[in-house]
Amino acid sequence: MSDVPQPPEAAASSDGSPAAAPSFDPVPGDRRLALGATGWLGRLNAGGWLEAADVHVASRLGVLVDEPDPLVVVTLALAVRAVREGSTCLDPTEAGAILATADGALDGSEGVGGEGVGGDGDSSDEGEREGVGGEGRAAAADLGGWLQRVTGSRLAAESVLRVEHGLVYLDRYWREERQVADDLRSRMAVPAASVDPGLLEAGLDRVFPGDSWAEQRSAVRASLARTTTILTGGPGTGKTSTVAGLVTLLAEQHERAAGRPLRVVLAAPTGRAAARLRESVLEAAAGMDASDRARLEGIESATVHRLLGWNRSRTRFARDRRNPLPHDVVVVDEASMLSLTLTARLLEAVRPTARLVLVGDPDQLASVEAGAVLADLVAGLDEPQPTGIDEGHGEDDAREPTIVEAATDSPTEPTEPVLTSDDRRLPMLVPRSPVPVSPVSALRTSHRFGPAIGRLAAAIRDGDPDAALAALSSEDDAVRLVELPATSADDADQTRAALLAAETAVRPALLGHALQLRAHAAAGETTAAVAQLGEHRLLCAHRDGPWGVSSWVRRTQRWLTEATADPVRSGHHGSGRYVGEPLLVTRNDLGLGLFNGDPGVVVRDGSGRLVAAMDAAGGVRTHPVARLADVETAHASTVHKSQGSQARTVTVLLPDDGSRLLTRELLYTAVTRAQEQVVLVGSEAAVRAAVIRRTRRASGLRRTLTDRR
Ligand SMILES: Nc1ncnc2c1ncn2[C@@H]1O[C@H](COP(=O)(O)OP(=O)(O)OP(=O)(O)O)[C@@H](O)[C@H]1O
Fold first, then answer.
1. What cellular component GO annotations does this protein have (predicted)?
2. Ligand 1 midpoint to CA 354 (Å)
3. Angstrom distances, CA of residue 655 to CA of 348, 458, 492, 499, 684
């Protein structure tokens, strides 16, 4: 298996969802059904819990190592499924629920027997009828016994499966999790380069003056105490501003101490996020002194893949422990999108003495690949850790260390950060006795949206459905719930009635926005058309189905056709594009300087041709529509695709409350895309389900971090 993870745009979509629910609803001919699958694997596949790939991998490896225990082969298939759904390991508690549910669903039919795909036809019948029905429930009821069978299996002896902390891993993810924990521990023990406290305090006063920037000042001080730090915060809490200040002050210190410029790189898991980070850092620098601006001027940015030297033809990155990155400081933004594998590769490529700053919002949707690394690191490291440095001032060595925790009940009401020591007194960083400092700094005050959106976002983040519904029913028009009747996916009449109600609710905003776009685009007003894109966005949880993006894009096109008497749909005007069509790039196009997630709109240029005005890093540029290979029509988009972007008003279409995609992280991500107003369209049951249901990603990283201290 290649050690190089695929870039996000090439990765399979995974949304993490309730473990016991089938992954799909199998219908004959579905490509996810494994032809000839027999026994327990076949049953779980037929029930939608396992996909063909899970079955094939497990049965092939089972045969290769001659694994005699069908439960262990099924465990391997479930571990492959777990990784496919975003976990780094299999949590037997959740897997037990699948087995017990599958048993229940299969009761009355045959049980579980010999495992395999496309066997000779005689292996299964007797075994299947031979009372293994109920073995799923038995395994679920005796997790210890189940784990012992896995630990003592041939698949474990051959290091295909690993058991640690009561979790079952595929070998690769077990190794990566240990490596990440070991590298982080080692990095925590490396003393950070010393700083000149006087120079730093003067710099902080210059870059972050006044009371409103106290959180940022504290975060920079905390970051300077260690080689590895994590900066967390919700949307608009000033993460980018902190990065800009941190980098310029580090550069100033470095110039003084080393007499050469600091080598800094800004990175992110996606090209769009990397480019936007650089742009935002330069915007933040615009308000600084000329000398500080100059320090940030030529700053580099790259995707993490590019930074590490990804090459399609190689199985490993060019940068690793033997050939580490040359940079003194590596900042990774949108770290919530880092997978376990990419984090492992990143950690081995950053020099042990170089500073690594991970920046992100752990409450947002995680990586499309396995792992929720940022959330795990915050949970596993957010307590005082020895730094390998002493932070005493000489006169007061006994004082508590500075632990940054900027806290407020509402993300919209600025409060002074809570500091456990006098934050005006800067530690002199001299290697001496270890003193604990948390490597995690949290920014809490949002400077982007108003109190109502802040309250709703906080209620969702805290998993409080009553508070979320209370926020939605407040007088403040900035948040609203357009309530639909509760529906079940199985009831076509209910769904039809709810869809009609949703159409009535959504049509005015969606059509009004589309008509505005079209008017600007038809008049060749490129700047106004691109600005209009940021006015409204319809977000869906699903891509397909009645509540999915494609059906709402088609609806909007139909409404536009009715309203303008001009048919608008793909294929129109010969190019497949129509004037005012909102676009979203779906794959990086380095030739055109476009990144996955960049928005744009089709406009008519001075000579009457249709061109695509793309809002990419570096500003708006137009391209002939025929040049754009990987774009989709964006009258609506998925919440996943909306990560990292904002709109003045956001409408969120909630699917029925049984949808496996409806999770707290999804709703939080959707709501926090709004700058001024967010409208949820769905049932109260759907809001409750989303707030309560967490994306389940099994991982042992937090435990591994704690154990390996
Ligand atoms: N402490 C502050 N006082 C006043 N304004 C602030 C403060 N922090 C940030 N801002 C302003 O709020 C806006 C958002 O800040 P910034 O881009 O740094 O936040 P962010 O957390 O990086 O946002 P996101 O990641 O959601 O894009 C900017 O206009 C910035 O100038």
1. exodeoxyribonuclease V complex
2. 26
3. 41, 22, 14, 10, 11
CA diameter of the chain: 83
434, burial (CB in 10 Å: exposed 0-12, middle 13-18, buried 19+)? middle
Of the candidates 64, 59, 88, 60, the one whose C-alpha atom is nearest the C-alpha of residue 74 is 59
Q: How many CA atoms lie within 13 A of 331 on its CB side?
A: 31
Question: Which pLDDT does position 33 carry in this prediction?
Answer: 64
> 682: annotated binding-site residue?
no
What CATH homologous superfamily does 180-381 map to? P-loop containing nucleotide triphosphate hydrolases (3.40.50.300)
Q: Are 537 and 650 in contact (CB under 8 A)?
A: yes
Residues within a 6 A CB radius of ligand 1: 212-213, 216, 233, 235-241, 280, 447-448
Residue of 240, 364, 443, 645 to test ligand 1 pocket, by largest number of atoms within 8 Å of CB: 240
Quote the tokens at residue 272: 């769009």
Could you give the CA distance from residue 208 to residue 211 in angstroms, rounded to a whole number?
9
Question: Global pTM?
Answer: 0.79
In sequence order, which residues have a C-beta less than 8 Å from that of residue 642 and are 6 or more positions away?
537, 539, 669, 670, 673
**What confidence category does residue 704 fall into, taking pLDDT thresholds of 50, 70 and 90?**
confident
The complex scores an ipTM of: 0.97
If you measure from the C-alpha of residue 532 to the centroid of ligand 1, how many angstroms do you get, rounded to a whole number?
22
Domain boundaries, given as residue ranges, for the chain: 39-164, 180-381, 451-692
Tokens 């409450």 appear where? 363
For 51, other C-beta atoms within 10 Å of its C-beta total: 23
Concatenating the DSSP letter of every residue in 137-183 gives: HHHHH-HHHHHHHHHTSHHHHTTSEEEETTEEEEHHHHHHHHHHHHH
Show Cβ contacts of residue 184 under 8 Å, excluding neighbours closer than 6 positions.
228, 347, 377, 381, 705
Give the tens place of pLDDT for each residue, 302-338: 889 889 987 766 668 889 999 999 999 999 999 998 9
* CATH number corresponding to 451-692: 3.40.50.300
Are 180-381 and 451-692 the same fold in CATH? yes
Report whether pLDDT(138) > 80.
Answer: no
In the block, residue with structure tokens 């409750």: 688
- The residue whose CA is least distant from atom 25 of ligand 1 is 235
Contact 602, 580 (CB under 8 A): yes
Q: Please answer whether residues 678 and 459 qualify as being in contact, where contact means their C-beta atoms are separated by less than 8 angstroms.
A: no
CA of 334 to the centre of ligand 1 (A): 15
Ligand 1 nearest-atom number relative to CA 276: 27
Among 66, 6, 15, 78, which residue's Cα sits nearest to residue 661? 15
Q: Where are the beta strands (DSSP E) in 355-465?
A: 355-360, 385-386, 404-405, 418-419, 436-437, 440-443
